[in-house]
Design a protein that fits this description.
The structure is a homodimer of 230-residue chains.
Chain A: H1 8-22, H2 29-36, H3 42-47, H4 50-62, H5 77-94, H6 97-102, H7 110-126, H8 130-164, H9 169-184, H10 188-196, H11 206-229
Helix pairs in contact in A: 1-2, 1-4, 5-7, 5-8, 5-11, 7-8, 8-9, 8-11
The first copy, chain A, binds a DNA duplex (30 and 30 nucleotides) through residues 5-6, 28-30, 38-42, 44-46, 49-50.
GO biological process, one term (chains A, B): negative regulation of DNA-templated transcription
GO molecular function, one term (chains A, B): DNA-binding transcription factor activity
Protein name (chains A, B): TetR/AcrR family transcriptional regulator
Amino acid sequence: MPRDTLSSDQIVEAAIALLDEEGLGGLNMRALGKRLGSAATAVYWHVGSKDNLITLAGDRVWSELTLPEAPAGPDGWRAAAEALAVGVHAMLTRHPWLVQAFGAHLMFGPAKARHDDYILALHENAGFTPAEADQASAALLTFVLGNALGPAAQAALTRKLAREGDGDAEARLAEGMAQAREVASVHPRLRARLEAESGTDYGAAPQDTFTFGLHALLDGLAARLATTRR
Amino acid sequence: MPRDTLSSDQIVEAAIALLDEEGLGGLNMRALGKRLGSAATAVYWHVGSKDNLITLAGDRVWSELTLPEAPAGPDGWRAAAEALAVGVHAMLTRHPWLVQAFGAHLMFGPAKARHDDYILALHENAGFTPAEADQASAALLTFVLGNALGPAAQAALTRKLAREGDGDAEARLAEGMAQAREVASVHPRLRARLEAESGTDYGAAPQDTFTFGLHALLDGLAARLATTRR
DNA sequence: GGGGCGAATTGAACGGCGTACAAGTCCCTG
DNA sequence: CAGGGACTTGTACGCCGTTCAATTCGCCCC
């Protein structure tokens, strides 16, 4: 028999796989148990509760991010900060459920702590005062998180429609989109947007939107930094 | 008897009250029915499903925002944009559940559409190209949303601990915070932050963090605007 | 090698949830 | 007054997170 005793690592791994495939709403203990070849309740001995498991999974995902050896010096700040933000953005794109979990579970573990400390150090090394470094780091992070909310909702909705499965997975989605378009079409600018990019789905534009906003934010922070350094 | 027939307005109002008091996880159809003096299932005739109800509630809340009569001209852009962002931030503070709903429900209704169109017009009037106006509006909005995630999680956690109610509502919270501090204390910068503001709760700092980041973002957008106008 | 003990797993069960549905009640119109 | 649509109700189903007593497994010591 291939079945050995479970480990929390195995469980967290399986949970992440399930979350990536089925979304936050698709993770439930019975499905997780089946995936692990165990009874659903075996998980509880290792992780205590579903909330705990989600926190564990979130921190594990957060540890995917690779941090350069030493925080960049005063001049490398901007490139390093941008790279960091892009990395987090990519992570949230890979794991859309994470941003939903962030809104409901107060996730903070060793990997997140390491990451936070790194960003803080990066900003202090660049010349920000400690208080400014704190706020600048938070601004960067919350901007990235906010950008992930839309795609997360999109993914959740798509999955829900697919799971209802009354045969017409895409039909319902199209219907909902059409309804949204109808609501939007009352307003001139929104209608113009809709006509401009008629065939675009929700997932295409945000990438450009993200880099545009990120660059603007970095510009603003760089300006602060310039006045602080003087 | 004070019982009359329900209206969807009544239902949405009661749902918002329940959401504000108990959080997103505290809204359930039986409790809502009890609050309305009806059977739980009576709600379904009016709003169809819980998802629908949440979307309705979200749009109703979004309509709380008052938009100045006409979008500001080229010079008033910055003040108007800041005021708008601050207004949305305040709204999300009043209704922390809304940002959670945004991550799971793709909320888009008439009030949100009106608001989006208004912001778009504001940016176009200021001199942004349509494409830039789109991205700048989105950047502003996602930044505000991202800032609301932390407090939302905090509120959700507090409520959950209170509802478990094993007598020690604050004890568990303090325990969790202490645990987080222990994790954080391995890293020098985080430890410094903890020692600096030892008695601060999660809700105090974010306000300053929000205005700091917002100003930086607005600065960056203003710089874009300057180059575009020329 | 056998006995024992803690680690790990199991299946049944509980209470709460969203919601479908058939049956009922109310009220307005012709 | 008869009919029919608007509206409400109670019951029930299936899924969920979690608890718990009972059971099995694996290792260490005598």
